[in-house]
């Protein structure tokens, strides 16, 4: 397996624009997580899915953020409208059932100007 | 809510010396404690983990200890090498299956 695949690797957008981040988890994994990483706040859990169903979105900062998982092999994190304070590295991770290793993607570095 | 504290935030050691990073957690139901290493421009990668029914685990130069009573766990790296330089994160998880990460420790191994 190629691991967790995220796209794009880098995204630069203007304030107010819609941004969509994409993630392909490892095949067979039941859980998918979206994290945001900044210097100030470290790794923050935004939302996680179990079998494509959102379980906990309490980390989503605002209504401007939304996430979907239409099938077991694809998830999106959307920010609309984007703001400069959304600039961060966004990671997707997946894991199988039970307390076990979560595998991270390479991340998407988002810059909102 | 669940919280994981990690110390120190930065750590510099001479090559060959040992490094210790400490974490405490708040949720007594936590039962799995992974440690991740993040190199520049990459996603975090698991280096070692420990479950709540074990007090210590070792893998070559890396070891992790867990004290459930005190709710803290530590990462020990012996005979450090320059390639150990990275940011290290601890995490805790319980039946909710969501990982709560510490704030990270930037380790520098000086040659």
Explain how this protein is built.
With 113 residues, chain A is mostly beta strands. In chain A, a hairpin with a 3-residue loop joins β4 and β5 (42-50). Chain A has strands spanning 5-7, 10-13, 19-24, 31-38, 42-50, 53-56, 65-71, 74-79, 88-95, 103-104, 108-112. The mean pLDDT of chain A is 95. Chain A is built from no helices and eleven strands. Chain B has 111 residues and is mostly beta strands. Helix content of chain B is 0%, strand content 55%. Chain B is built from no helices and eleven strands. In chain B, the strands form two sheets. In chain B, strands 2, 4, 5, 9, 10 and 11 form a six-stranded mixed β-sheet that branches. In chain B, β6 and β7 (62-67) form a beta hairpin. Chain B is globular.
Secondary-structure element order of chain A, N to C: EEEEEEEEEEE
Oligomeric state of the chains?
A: heterodimer
Name the pair of protein chains with the most residues at their interface, and give those residue counts. A-B, 23 and 24 residues
- Mean pLDDT reading of chain A: 95
Note the overall shape of chain B: globular
Alpha plus pi helix count of chain A: 0
Roughly how many Å is the radius of gyration of chain B? Answer: 13 Å
State the end-to-end CA separation of chain B: 41 Å
The residue ranges of chain B in which pLDDT falls below 50 over 5 or more consecutive positions are none
Measure the end-to-end span of chain A: 36 Å
Q: How much is the average pLDDT of chain B?
A: 93
Shape summary of chain A: globular
Would you identify the regions of chain A where 5 or more consecutive residues have pLDDT less than 50? Answer: none
- What does the radius of gyration of chain A come to? 13 Å
**Count of helices of chain B?**
0
Q: How helical, in percent, are the residues of chain A?
A: under 10%
User: How much strand content do the residues of chain B show?
Assistant: over 45%
What would you call the structural class of chain A?
A: mainly beta
């Amino acid at each position: 397996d190629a691991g967790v695949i995220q796209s794009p690797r880098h995204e630069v957008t203007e304030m107010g624009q819609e941004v969509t981040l994409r993630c392909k988890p490892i095949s067979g994994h039941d859980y998918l997580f979206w994290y945001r990483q900044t210097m100030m706040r470290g790794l923050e859990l935004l939302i996680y899915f179990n079998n494509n169903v959102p379980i906990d979105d309490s980390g989503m900062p605002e209504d401007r953020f939304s996430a979907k998982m239409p099938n077991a092999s694809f998830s999106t994190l959307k920010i609309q409208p984007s703001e400069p304070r959304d600039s961060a590295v966004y990671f997707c991770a997946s894991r199988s059932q039970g307390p076990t290793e979560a595998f991270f993607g390479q991340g998407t570095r988002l810059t909102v100007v | 809510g669940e919280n994981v504290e990690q110390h120190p935030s930065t750590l510099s050691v001479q090559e060959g010396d040992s490094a210790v990073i400490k974490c405490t957690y708040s949720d007594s139901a936590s039962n799995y404690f992974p440690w991740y290493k993040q190199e520049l421009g990459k996603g975090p990668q698991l280096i070692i983990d420990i479950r709540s029914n074990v007090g210590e685990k070792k893998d070559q130069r890396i070891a992790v200890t867990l004290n459930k009573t005190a709710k803290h766990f530590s990462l020990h790296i012996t005979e450090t090498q320059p390639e150990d330089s990275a940011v290290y994160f601890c995490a805790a998880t319980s039946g909710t299956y969501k990982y709560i990460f510490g704030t990270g420790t930037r380790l520098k191994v000086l040659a």
